[in-house]
Amino acid sequence: MITYAVAFLVILGMTIGQILFKISSTALTESGSFFALKPAMTFFAAICLYGITSMAWVWVLQRVELGRIYPLMALAFVLVPLGSHFVFGERFQLQYFLGVALIMVGIFITVKS
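Below the sequence we write its predicted structure tokens.
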């Protein structure tokens, strides 16, 4: 059970990393220089977070078969857009929510098999 909790934290970390990458790209556009403080710091934070989550993912893979745990990565397709909605105010159409529901059903079926 702890392994699945760590896997979820990895997915959450990757989600936050994607949001940080977007913040970095927006700051880069505003500043015009990658070496400005905001884009550099947010990019560095995202890279560090990805490094930590990669090490945690390796720990998870030591304990669970890749084929059993990898479908959980599809949660990122749900969490990243949700995060973008709350952080950036992005909006979604009804088709998006249908797609999210299908992803969630697929994850549930795969994990239970």
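Residues 2-31 form the longest helix (30 residues).
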